[in-house]
Amino acid sequence: MAVHLSDRKRPLPRPGQQALVALLAASALTAPAWSWVVFESPAPVRTLIALVGGVAGILLCAAVATAAHQAAAARIARAHSTRVSVGARILEEEAGRVVDALLPAVSQAAREGRSAQSVLARYPRPGHPTIDRLAHAVTTQVASAERRSAQDREARAEIEDEVTDLADSVLPLIVHRVRADRTSAAETLAQEFQDVREPVARLRRRVLDEILAAERRSATALVSAANSGARIQAHLTTLLAQLRDLEDRYGDRADIFSDLLRVDHNVSRTGRLADAFVVLAQGRSGRRWTRPIIMESILRGAMGRITAYRRVRLHYTSRVAVVGYAAEGVMQALAELMDNAANFSAHGTDVHVYVQEEDTGVTITVEDSGMGMRKRERRIAENLIAEPRTLATLPGIRTGLAVVGCLADKYGLKVSFRPSARGGVGVVVLIPPNLITEPRARVRRPRAATAGTPVVVVPGSGTPGTGTPPAGVPSADTPAAGIPAVGTPSAGTPAGPPPPARDAADRPPLPRRDARPGPAGPEPSGTAPGQPTGPVNLPRRRRGHTLAEAVRENPEQLFPTARRHLDPQSRNGIPTRFAAFRDAGAPPEENGRDTTREGGR
Amino acid sequence: MNTDHLDSEVPDRLYTVTGGRGDPGGPGDPALDSVTLLVAESEPAPHMQSEHADILRLCTRPTAVVEISAELGLPVSVVRILLVDLLDTGAVVARHPVPSTPQEGPRHDPDTLKQVLLALQRL
User: Fold this and answer.
1) Half-sphere exposure of residue A93, counting CA atoms within 13 Å on the CB side?
2) Cys staple from A261: which of A80, A413, B22, B46, with CB 3.0 to 4.6 Å?
3) Which architecture, in CATH terms, is A288-437?
4) Is A354's Cβ below 8 Å from some Cβ in B?
5) Is the ipTM of this complex over 0.85?
6) CA-CA distance, A144 to A119, in Å (whole number)?
C-alpha cells in the first residue's frame, strides 16, 4: 500500500457497518411505532393500516440505512482524497530536494573524488520510499561511474607517463644503441625494456623496427658510397701515376709539360673531392705510404690538391716526417683547411702555412686574411671538429670541416681555431708526437731511360742501413747481402756510411715514438727501402697498377734468386758497373758529398 | 717502370715543386739547355725548398742540367724552372758550352772526326 497512514487518528467506520447501525436504529424506532398504530387502529382497517404502516416503516428503515451508508462512503472518500493530496505534496517536495540538492552534491563529490555514499549519508534520508530508492540508485550509479572514471584517469596518466618516458629517455637510448651496435641492438634492447601497456609497447616496437631499418639503409648507403668512392680513388691514382709517367717522358718539352701539369692539377683536385667523399662515407683512406713522408712533401701534397694552390705560401724549416700510415690523412686534413682558407679570403691574398716543432708535437698553422669567423660560425666549426660526422649525419652541405673532424678523430690530430694576426682565421693543427718520426733517407733513383734524355746513373743513392760495408769503391762484385731487391739498379748497391742528418745535428730531436740517437747513428732498422733484410719474396706493384701488370712487367720478381743465378750478366748489373766506373773516377770526398745530400732529405 | 717506384714515390706533384709554372719562360736564362754546366755560388739555406738545396749541394762541381735532372729524378723542365729561380737569386751561375760560330768555322774538322770514329770502330 503506497498510502502513508501515519497521521490517521481513528479508523473511519466502514459504510456497511454504518448502514447496518442506521438500519437497526431505524428499525428500533419504526417497529414500536408501527405496533402502537396497529394496536390503536380500529379493527376493520387494522389489517390495511398494518400493511401500509409496515411497508412505510420498511421503506423508512431502508432510506435511513442507505443515507447512513452514503454518508460513511463520502467521509471515507474525503479522507482518502486528503491523504492522497498530502502524499503527492510530500512526493513533490522530496523529489525536488533530491533533484535540487542531493544530485548536484553527489556529482560535485564525484568530480572532487569524494565518495558518493558519504554525501548521501550527510543528507536526511528521503521520507518517500520511492524517492529513497531513487536516490540510492542514482548515488550508486554515480559512484560506479566515478570509480570507472578514476580508473580511466589513472590509466591515461600511466600511458601518458609511458609515452613521455618513451619520447624522453627510451627513444634516445634506442637511437644511441642502434648507432653503437646496430646488429645486436634489437635483442638487447628488447631485454632491457620495461613492461609497458600494450599500445605503448606496440608503438615502441614499431619505432624500434623503423629505426633499425633506417639505420640499415643508411649503413648500406654509406658502404656503397664508400665503395664507389674507393673505386674513383683507384682510378684517379692510376691516372696520376700515368700522368707522372707522361711528365717524365715529356719533361723536356715545355709546352706539353705545362699542359700535363695543368691536367695533373685538375686530377689532383678531383682526387681531393673523392677523398673527402670516402672519408665522410667512413671508407679507408685512398693511399697508404710505405715510409715516413717529410713535412715538405706533406705540405706540398696538401697544397697541390686545392684549386688556388698558387696562393699558398709555405714557411717551414722543419725536416721531421709524418709516419706513413697517417701521412695521407694529415695531407687530406691540411688540404681541406687550406681550401677553406683560400675560399674564405679575397682572391688576391695569400694563405700562409707555418710549421713549428713543439714539445707536444708539430703544429701546422693555416692562416688567411679573410673575413674571419663570427662566434656562431666558430661554434659550428668547433662542433664539426669535436663530433665526427658521416654523410648520414652531416649537418649541412659543407663538407670541408666535417672531413677534417673525421680525420682528426681518426689520427688524434688536435684542431683549434683562433683569430689570425692577418685579420682572418688561423687554424692550428697539432700532429701528436706518435705520428712524427725521423725522415728516412729518400731513394733518389735515376729516371728510367724512357725519358729519352741522357741518364747518368749514380750509385750511393741507397739508404743507409746496418750491415752495409763502409764507403769504398763499390763494384759489381759486391751486391747487397741477402736477396737482391727486385730489379732495381741502385737497390743492390751498398751505400756509403750513413751521414748524420743535417738538421738533426743542428738541434736536439723531439721526443718521438721511435726516438733514436738521431745525429750520427746509423739507422738501426735494416728495413730501408730497396734493401730488404729478410726473404721478402712478395711481388711488389706500383701504385695505380694491378699486381698482374707488375708481374708482367717484371716477372723475375716472383723468382728473384733463381733469375739471378741463371743470368748473372743480366742488365741489372750493368748500371751498377757504370756507377762503379764513375765513382772510381771521382775523388773520394764526392762519396761523402753525395750521401750528405741524401741524408739531408 | 721499376718496383722501387713504390719507395721513391712522393705525394707532392710536380706543379707544387715548380710553384705552378710549367714553362721556364719569363726573365730566366733562355739559353739554359740540357748540357749547360752549373756551379753553385752559395751554400744551401735552411729556408730553401729542398730541391733548391739539393741542386746547390750537387753543383759544388760543375754539373749539367740533365745530370741534375737525373740525380733529382725530376723532369728537365722542372729542373730548368728551379735553376732559373737560383740563377735569378745568383745562387748558381751557368757556364754555357762555347758555341761554334760560323765566322770562326767549325772548331773540329769533320774529316778528322770521321777518321777517329772509324778508328774507334775498328778497335
Assistant:
1) 9
2) B22
3) 2-Layer Sandwich (3.30)
4) no
5) no
6) 14
